[in-house]
Design brief:
The protein has ten helices and ten strands. The longest helix has 15 residues, at 84-98. It has a single domain (13-195, 225-239), classed as NADP-dependent oxidoreductase domain (TIM Barrel). It has helices at residues 31-40, 54-62, 84-98, 118-130, 144-153, 172-181, 200-209, 213-224, 235-242, 251-258; strands at residues 6-8, 14-16, 20-21, 44-46, 72-77, 103-108, 134-140, 160-164, 184-188, 227-228. By secondary structure, it is an alpha/beta fold. The strands form two sheets. Strands 3-4-5-6-7-8-9-10 form an eight-stranded parallel sheet. Bound molecules: nicotinamide-adenine-dinucleotide.
Length: 280
């Protein structure tokens, strides 16, 4: 099976373009799907302190027999841990749960504008980066305006922004801004949590290629240049979701899928979302 291609991030670190997401997978159930994903060829795993399953992810990685430098592990700083010293301490807890000395990519999970401390929080990630505890640092759910502010007030450029992005919410303006800044776009809920897979345009293109709707949607992301982290705990789907490197969509098909989109999010609005914030 063809391996996902590598994307070179702005700091030179390479990251697989397709990986395995583990949001909403309970701590005591995460070991098996991560193990299956690694067997199927995934080398990127996307977790977060908030998912409360870092320990199981770490065990699956440790027992996989795959060399550490072939694996790419992302985790994220939770909202309750914004602030310089809190962020440093939270990172240590995540690294310990994962059983890793160095984490490949550390993200601020949400900007939390209500608390107005993401600049200070980013400085903690910069320190972790300078100290060699993380190979790359990035953002999640940040808007163009927030990224512009970080760029003007801090030193290290985020390597990527992980945001809600799928055919139902294609985020063209943000993607274009990120590309212009040399910041990679990573799509969360790349399958729209499965809700968009019955769309007529997607099912027609899937039938024409002899592929599943999920594969067509993931291929759409890959050809747009997005990094994707589909989640499934079903063995067949785990294999299906990585088998997207032996067919291509035409430009007209890409455009037809993009045209499905609206400006309606499925997930929370980053400008409002403040779950776990200390200022709540
Ligand atoms: P997703 O778009 O990956 O959809 C997952 C769901 O789609 C599954 O639960 C299943 O119901 C369905 N599905 C998966 N494969 C399928 C297939 N082949 N055929 C049919 N249905 C299929 O949604 P997600 O889990 O929300 O997002 C993926 C990952 O993104 C998460 O696991 C997490 O790592 C990350 N994420 C990050 C944030 C953030 O704020 N940074 C938010 C949400 C998710």
């Amino acid at each position: 099976m063809a391996q996902p291609p590598m994307i070179t991030l702005s700091n030179g670190v390479e990251m697989p373009q397709l990986g395995f997401g583990v949001f909403q997978v309970p701590a005591d159930e995460v070991y098996e799907p991560v193990t299956l994903a690694l067997e199927a060829g995934y080398r990127l795993v996307d977790t977060a302190a908030a998912y409360r399953n870092e320990e199981g992810v770490g065990k699956a990685i440790a027992n996989s027999g795959i060399a550490r430098d072939e694996l790419f592990v992302t985790t994220k700083l939770w909202n309750a841990d914004h602030g310089f010293s809190r962020a440093l301490a939270a990172f240590e807890r995540s690294a310990e749960r994962l059983g890793l000395d160095v984490v490949d990519l550390y993200l601020i999970h949400w900007p939390l504008p209500v608390q107005d401390d993401y600049v200070e929080t980013w400085r903690a990630l910069e320190q972790l980066y300078h100290d060699g505890r993380v190979r790359a640092i990035g953002l999640s759910n940040f808007t163009e305006q927030q990224i512009r502010r970080l760029r003007s007030e801090t030193e290290v450029v985020p390597v990527l922004d992980q945001v809600e992005l799928h055919p139902g919410f294609p985020q063209a303006p943000l993607r274009s801004f990120l590309t212009g800044e040399g910041i990679a776009t990573e799509a969360w809920s790349p399958l729209g949590q499965g809700e968009i897979l019955g769309d007529g345009v997607i099912t027609r293109i899937a039938a024409e290629h002899g592929r599943t709707p999920a594969q067509v949607v993931l291929r759409w992301h890959i050809e747009l240049g997005n990094i994707v982290i589909p989640k499934s705990v079903t063995p067949e789907r785990i294999e299906e979701n990585i088998a997207v490197f032996d067919f291509e969509l035409g430009a007209d098909e890409i455009d037809a899928i993009t045209a499905i989109g609206s400006d309606r999010r499925q997930g929370p609005d980053p400008e409002q979302f403040d779950l776990g914030a200390r200022s709540q």
